[in-house]
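Page 42, continued from yesterday. The earlier attempt failed because a stray header line got pasted into the input along with the sequence. Redoing it now with the clean sequence only.
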Amino acid sequence: MLEIQVVPGRTTILSVDDQALVRLALSRILENKGFQCLQAENFDQAMEQLNSQAVDLVLCDVIMPGRSGLDLVGALRDRIPEVAIVMVSSADDTDLAMECLERGAYGYVLKPFKAREILIQVNSALRRRMLELDYRDRERVLAHKVREQTAEIRESRDEISFRLLAASEERDTETGCHIRRIGLYASEMARLLDWNEEAVECIRAAAPMHDIGKIGVPDRILQKPGALDEQEWVLMKDHALIGAKILQGSSVPFIRMGAQIAASHHEKWDGTGYPKGLHSTQIPMEARITALVDVYDALSQKRCYKEAWPEEQVLSFMTARRGTHLDPQLLDLFLKHIDVFRGIRESNADENPSAAQQEFAHPL
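This time it went through. C-alpha cells are written below.
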C-alpha cells in the first residue's frame, strides 16, 4: 500500500477569512507544526495569492463579504486536486456542509475550532490530495505506456500485413498507395458503424490483404490487358479461396479477419458472387465493407487496362449496383460521408500513375 507522508516544511497553506483573529489563530496552529502559512481576507486576495505562488491547501470561511467561500471552491474546481480546500465556518448547517463537499471541498470544520480538529482535517485533506495527485500521475504514465504499446501493436500489424502482401507481389508506389487506401477506407467505414477501436484497427490491417490469394494466379492472367476467357476466369476466381487458405487458422485477430475478407470479398449482396454464392448478411460484414471500398478505389484509379473514372461516374456505377452487388445500407452510409472518403483518396493519391502496369488487372 502507498505510504503517504505529509511534510509540513514543504507544505504551504492559505487561510482565507474576513476576521483577522481567525486567520491569525489558524496560522499559529499550523506554523507551530512547521507549515508555511499565507493569509487573505476575501475572495479577491485569495485568488491573487493563488495566482502568484504555489499553495497546497486552502482553509476558507464559507460566509465572507463579497464573494463567498463556495465561490472560491468553484473558482478552484479545475485546480483540484492540485489545491485541497477545507471549509472553516460558524454555520452548523448539514446541508451547507454537504454542498461544500459536493463542490469539491475536502473537509468542513466548525468554529470555534480546536487546534487538534484543524490539524486532523489538514493532514487528512493533504493525504487525500497527495493520493489523488499520485493516482493522476500513475494514470498519466500508464496512458503514455498504453499509447506507446498501441503504436507498437499498430506498427506490428502493418509490418505483418505488408510482409504477407510482399510475398504475393513486388509492390511499387502505386500498389502501395492502393493498399493503404483500402485499409483507410475500410477502417473509416468501421468507425462510422461504431466499431470499437480494436476492431477498427483490425480491419485497417486486414482489408489490404483481400487479394493476397492472387499469389496463386499466373502472371499471364493477372497482367493480361484484355478480357479474360472462361478458363482464365475460373483460375482468377480461385484467388479468393487461395487467400483464405493462406490466412486461415491464425490466432492473430486481424489475420483471422483477413481470411474472412479474402474468402468473401467477391460475394455479392444478391448471391451471384463467388466462390460460395453467399448473399446479404451471410457475407461477413468485413468482406462487404472491403468489397464496397475496393470497387470505389479500383474505378477511381488508372489501371493498365483502363483510365481513371471521374468520381461522378464511379458513384453512379456503385449506386446502380445497390442491393445487387453492394450492401445497400453500407453503400448509403458510404455515400452520406463521401467527402471523408474523397479526402482519403486525395491525400493518398498515386505518386506515379504510370506504375499501374504492375497492379493487378481485373480487380472487380
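Notes: The longest helix spans residues 115-168.
Reminder to self: strip header lines before submitting.
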